[in-house]
Amino acid sequence: MKRRTFLQGTTALVLLPSLPAFAQDDIRAVAREAYIYTYPMVKNYLTMYQYALEPDGSQYKGPLNTLVSIARVYTPDDTAIITPNSDTPYSFIVFDLRAEPVVVTMPPIEENRYYSLQLIDLYTNNVDYPGTRVDGNGGGDFLITGPGWKGDVPKGIKRVIEMPTTLAMGIVRTQLFSPADLDKVKEIQTTYKAALLSAYAGMPTPAAPASVDWMPVSDELMVTNYWPLAAFLLQFAPPYPGDEVQRKNLDKLGIRERAMWPEADLSSDTVALMKEVVITTEKEIRDEAARLTDSSKIFGTPEFMKGRFMVRAAAAQGGIYGNSVQEALYVIYAFDEQKAPLDGKTGRYTLTFTPETLPPVDAFWSLTMYDRAQAVPCRQPHQPLPDQLADACRTQEERQGRDRPPLAARKPRTGAGIELASRPDRNLLCGHEALSAQGRGAGRALGAAADRSSFVINEDQGVCLTSCFLFAWCEVWSLPRAT
Asked: N or C: which end of the chain has fewer CB within 10 A?
């Protein structure tokens, strides 16, 4: 069932409560705050469940505490994570840290290649980044623990990283230089390892954690069964300091750790109103996410995100697992210079960089096109990798002349730039990402090779997913100094 149709049908089924107006307003306000607070956890659990807890699902990768690599770039068929990039093949691990820590091994790799292990707690905060920017490329064994772990650290551990929640996500990104480089990336991926601490150190296995009846989740269940899901996840997510008001709100609504929702004493009117709030507040979060233009202030550590509950929810909705600005910056293009939504069926667009506006990076930068409704990469035959972007700069025809505004809705000169976007059904949205240390890798090639580089977004190549919108995401990987 299509999400839009499903939501419309659900809205029609919700009955307005017969509570007094003042009671309705109070419950609605408390439930809205509770939904915003818990939304990132439930959204995160959706991916965790699909990757590690649903063996028969199309997105399944492997069991909990198992590191699994995807030896290819992401495609529209990879739907569990929104807005993945097409330049860094991924490896994943879903941590269950209740019983004991997990040791993750990052191998030594060549100096000019970027890699990182993004560690994300259940709230979707970015806790740490073993890898190029923080630790260099020498590799090492990293001990990932649950909250409050006090055991002995074995020899050979490079760093101990405490996760604030017992369920957590790890995402390894390995830079891909070109299609011909994929075999080398596969070789590196085979050397990523994860082992329970007891197996790594040859210690006795600790007692198994309490058995969990993992609650099913899907896009549809995030609407119809949202509050039971939120209550279920509280057992894996101790509150942060400063979350006291939000936890009291949950308690008022009968949403408690290891408690079934709704409780018997919760009135049917309150239950109906809370279900209505799920629909209205999800739309509010979605609208907030649609206003985002870059990622500089929406992803970060628990300290950085403290108290910023709506920002965290919008970031989870619009680009879950986005990197902290110290690691990567994402710039989103949604409109042309006339502030009109990008339309891939009727418009042709050119994204132009001058020498002054090329992203200053330490690793590489990239441009990826997405289906806006699903936020997954489009089916396009000419999605460039960083080396192809650099080649485009070297051969760019327009090295002189007046500056062309980015995303100008005009027909580009034949042969100028790279044709990025395939034809979507209706409209188009575009953006870019940049990553790690300035002057190294693709970033250096781009900066040194071109006076101007134009990337053509047009509608006459290939076929995109059947959807209303599409966007490009520019990524600047690992900024040298982030503020």
From this structure: C
